[in-house]
Amino acid sequence: MQKTAAAVEMLREADARERPRGTWAVGLSWDFGRQELEEIVECLGGRALAIICRMLSEEYRHRASGVPDLIVWNYPERIARFVEVKGPGDSLSETQKIWIDVLLSAGVPVEVCRIKDKAEVDSKPPPKRKGSLKKTPSSSSAGKGKARLPKVKTNGVDIIVIDSDSDDQATRKRRRS
After folding, report:
1. Rounded alpha-carbon distances, angstroms, from residue 87 to 65, 114, 172
2. Nearest-CA neighbor of 35 among 51, 54, 19, 22?
3. Which family does the similarity line name (predicted)?
4. Cα(15)–Cα(33) distance, integer angstroms
């Protein structure tokens, strides 16, 4: 909890100092208010945020890409998760697999959302789903079984779309479900 409080305080200080100047930084967009950012920090937690920042600062050139497409959070429940969206025929890159492994090891739930072609969906019956979503073992957790992830309610969940393919800084969109 101390790390989270310290992370929120660091965010407030940097926001108060840099937002008025509109300081340009790779991957940063001032489109989001401080409150939204504070909510994300509190939902992720200071430890997870420290791991994410360390990953970016130590190997930025190799880790600037591959971060999942979305972060969804439910502030009242203090739950956040990353979501990687894959279209038909698309698969995870090695960089994406590394990010997913890092996020999971930091205690941040990650999901892969597979978008299917409508024709494929119409021709097959929907799969039966029981219980919570499960984490598939990564290379570092192989043989340790499957861990259950908490469900995030879709009602009132904030969604940020991160377009890291933009030539400029990362373009982000916010949508409220």
Report:
1. 18, 6, 19
2. 19
3. Belongs to the FAN1 family.
4. 9
Task: Assign 3-class secondary structure to 146-174.
Answer: CCECCCCCCCCCEEEEEECCCCCCCEEEE
Q: Which amino acid is at 40?
A: I
Could you tell me if residue 117 is left (phi over 0), alpha (psi between -120 and 50 degrees) or otherwise beta? beta
pLDDT along the chain (177 residues), means of 10: 89 95 84 93 94 87 86 95 93 94 95 84 67 42 38 45 40 41
Q: State how far the Cα of 141 lies from the Cα of 161, in Å rounded to an integer.
A: 28
Give CA–CA dist 70/162, Å, rounded.
6
Find out whether 131 and 154 touch, Cβ atoms under 8 Å. no
Determine the 3-state secondary structure of 57 from DSSP. Answer: helix
